[in-house]
């Protein structure tokens, strides 16, 4: 499973390829792709891919830890604290501790400086614990320095006006990780600034093999019950059929994560810094209906007096459980917005069909992905992340699977029932039924 394969078009090393992209770009004073070409490649990607040479000139590409210390100074950030020991259970955010500290204190801790300087980290051993300031909105971090938001420029990828206001910052120590999950909305662009991060990605078709769950509940994430770097194959035998795509992201590289790709991310080096942005998609309208259904069902189950819950079913990213009435309002608003979007989309299609043939041909030509714009892009600077060779344990195929007895399966719990009710495929069908049912009322 740990084997990595990289499709490097004429190269065998991604760092060598990145140097080549920088050299060619410097020589011609241009980036490997125009914004239009980059946008076409991103929205046309069916696999994760690493993009080289597109963000080297961004000031944000130099936001290393010392630079961030200077920029944010005494500003407090919340760090998630986890354990570096490897277990078969994922380290969900509900199982972690949290401390509020400055980036300077974090830097002193990972550097091994005095306990006094490292503040709240002083009682933590870097050999035992990791820390992660994840999902920090740049617009809030730099609310007093809006000029800093211009140091991120997703316009180079074909998204004009998109900058730090639409981005988040991630700062972690060695071992810091995000449990395997899928994002409900959009696709993801990730710039690696400092250190390396290892990404384990799985296609949407592998959802059944990753044992999806909505507990802990977070409005925009579906988690996997599998610790993909140390799976319990007896409890999760279907995981052996999953197809991991593994890549280590280096500074200066940008990773494209297509819609609904599962991913587990772990910091490889002592310090890692990343900046990312989620790109909105038309499919998000339907996803919001699905998320409103999930919220309504989870809160209805978990808010019932006496329901099995240890109080940790709500992810720390969610402030509180919303009432059933509020959740139904969200659901109705999401269905209404989806219906309006589909009506507007239909009107646009009807208008396009009435155009003169020549005008229609020109528009289709302009919208065609990969359309030539006067120069050939450096295709070796867009690297697909291919599947690993195997996800099976040595000799696993030779093992006979022993069926579970009734005593091993036990009684069905409410969480197990929720997992079935809120399986992504089931929620998608329910959302479609709701939209079809209410479509004629609006």
TrEMBL record:
Pfam family, one: Cupin_8
Keywords, sorted A to Z: Cytoplasm
PROSITE patterns: JMJC
Official protein name in the record: JmjC domain-containing protein
Positions of the UniProt region annotated as Disordered: 344-410
Subcellular location: Cytoplasm
Record-annotated JmjC domain positions: 130-294
Physiological role: May play a role in cellular stress response.
Keyword Ubl conjugation in annotation: no
The organism of origin for this protein: Ranitomeya imitator (mimic poison frog)
Compositional bias (Basic and acidic residues): 357-369
């Amino acid at each position: 499973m740990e084997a990595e394969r990289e499709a490097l078009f004429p190269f065998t090393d991604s760092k060598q390829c990145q140097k080549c992209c920088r050299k060619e770009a410097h020589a011609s004073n241009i980036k490997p792709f125009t914004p239009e070409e980059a946008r076409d490649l991103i929205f046309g990607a069916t696999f994760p891919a690493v993009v080289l040479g597109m963000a080297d000139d961004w000031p944000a590409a130099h936001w290393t830890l010392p630079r961030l210390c200077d920029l944010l100074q005494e500003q407090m950030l919340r760090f998630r604290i986890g354990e570096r020991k490897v277990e078969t259970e994922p380290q969900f955010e509900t199982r972690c501790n949290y401390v509020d500290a400055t980036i300077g204190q974090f830097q002193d801790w990972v550097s091994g400086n005095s306990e006094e300087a490292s503040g709240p980290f002083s009682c933590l051993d870097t050999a035992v614990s990791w820390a992660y300031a994840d999902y920090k909105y740049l617009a809030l971090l730099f609310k007093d320095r809006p000029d800093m938001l211009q140091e991120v420029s997703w316009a180079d990828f074909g998204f004009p006006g998109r900058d730090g206001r639409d981005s988040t910052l991630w700062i972690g120590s060695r071992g810091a990780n995000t449990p395997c999950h899928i994002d409900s909305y959009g696709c993801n662009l990730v710039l690696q600034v400092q250190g390396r991060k290892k990404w384990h990605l799985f296609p949407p078709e592998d959802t059944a093999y990753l044992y999806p769950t909505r507990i802990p509940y977070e409005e925009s994430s579906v988690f996997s019950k599998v610790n993909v770097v140390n799976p319990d194959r007896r409890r999760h035998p279907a995981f052996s059929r999953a197809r991991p795509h593994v890549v280590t992201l280096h500074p200066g590289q940008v990773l494209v994560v297509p819609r609904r790709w599962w991913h587990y991310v772990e910091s490889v080096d002592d310090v890692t810094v990343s900046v990312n942005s989620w790109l909105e998609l038309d499919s998000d309208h339907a996803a919001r209906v699905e998320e409103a259904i999930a919220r309504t069902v989870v809160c209805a189950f978990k808010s019932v007096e006496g329901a099995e819950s240890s109080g940790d079913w709500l992810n720390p990213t969610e402030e509180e459980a919303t009432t059933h009435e509020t959740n139904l309002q969200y659901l109705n608003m999401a269905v209404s917005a989806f219906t309006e979007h589909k009506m507007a989309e239909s009107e646009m299609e009807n208008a396009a069909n009435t155009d003169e043939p020549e005008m229609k041909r020109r528009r289709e030509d302009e919208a065609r992905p990969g359309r030539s714009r006067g120069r050939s892009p450096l295709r070796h600077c867009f690297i697909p992340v291919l599947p690993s060779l195997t996800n099976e344990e040595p000799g696993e195929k030779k093992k006979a699977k022993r069926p579970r007895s009734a005593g091993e399966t036990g009684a069905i719990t409410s969480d197990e029932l929720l997992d079935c009710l809120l399986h992504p495929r089931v929620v998608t069908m329910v959302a479609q039924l709701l939209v079809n049912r209410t479509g004629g009322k609006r």
